[in-house]
DNA sequence: CATAAACGTAAGCGACGCCTTACGTAATGT
DNA sequence: ACATTACGTAAGGCGTCGCTTACGTTTATG
């Protein structure tokens, strides 16, 4: 599972704003651009990146193109992060405790 | 909640590799660099970025610096994605829109 | 003190990303 | 057919990113 593209896509603040603006609604490209102080092509380019990353879907209606958040993609991102701390640690509530235990162990058994 | 820094940090493939290599272990900077075909300073710079993003912690032992994954940060990232997911399923777009205007103002006023 | 070991920092280079303005394109209306 | 609407695309400016080599800094050791 290669999550580089979705991660890079969602890392950009402007694209986070677009995703939040969309919410569960379906919006046209121009309507989205109207909410920001950047040019319409800039938003269009962001939408292409989000679409390429699978984070939004596109639907054509007349001359307009309606975009919608693909919540499945966000679920995949969450699953990807789970992968990291299966190797990193057990549970969140014991994270600090485990860290302290590790610090003590390394103090006596450092190479 | 501003997750831009951690997201940009984890979006980079090399830093993903470093985090995976670390796992739950604690490793020195040079030992980490030994696993990749890039220079040691390159890895050192990546580690600074990961540290600044709160994704790893640093501990000094002699002349070495040991790095460790901060799994709490990964938990925060996951919670951040939960925020997006809920926004994509519920109808709270007006509040999200107001948040967008605020974020956009912050961005444009700092250029 | 002097040397070595382990590491971070500085400077610079090529590639990439976000933005702009100008232009091309597909669908609708008159 | 022609104009209009709603877009995407092209080209370029400008900052940022990841990498390199060279140098500085801190800690241990003879």
Question: Can you give a write-up of this model?
Answer:
Two copies of one chain form a homodimer. Chain A has one domain: Orthogonal Bundle (Arc Repressor Mutant, subunit A). Helix content of chain A is 61%, strand content 13%. Chain A has helices at residues 4-11, 13-22, 29-33, 40-52, 71-88, 95-108; strands spanning 27-28, 56-61, 64-69. In chain A, strands 1-3-2 form a three-stranded antiparallel β-sheet. In chain A, strand 2 and strand 3 form a beta hairpin. Chain A starts with a helix and ends with a helix. Mean pLDDT of chain A is 82; it is low at 90-111. The interface between A and B is large, with 40 and 46 residues. The first copy, chain A, binds a DNA duplex (30 and 30 nucleotides) through helix 4.
Give the gist of this structure.
The structure is a homodimer. Chain A is of the alpha+beta class and about 110 residues long.
- How much strand content do the residues of chain A show? 5-15%
The greatest interface between two protein chains, and residues involved on each side, is: A-B, 40 and 46 residues
Q: Nearest-angstrom radius of gyration of chain A?
A: 20 Å
Strand order of the largest sheet of chain A: 1-3-2
Structural class of chain A: alpha+beta
CATH architectural arrangement of chain A: Orthogonal Bundle
Assembly of the depicted chains: homodimer
**What does the main sheet of chain A amount to?**
3 strands, antiparallel
Uncertain residue segments of chain A:
90-111
Query: Would you report the number of β strands of chain A?
Result: 3
The CATH class designation of chain A is Mainly Alpha
Tell me the CATH superfamily of chain A.
Winged helix-like DNA-binding domain superfamily/Winged helix DNA-binding domain
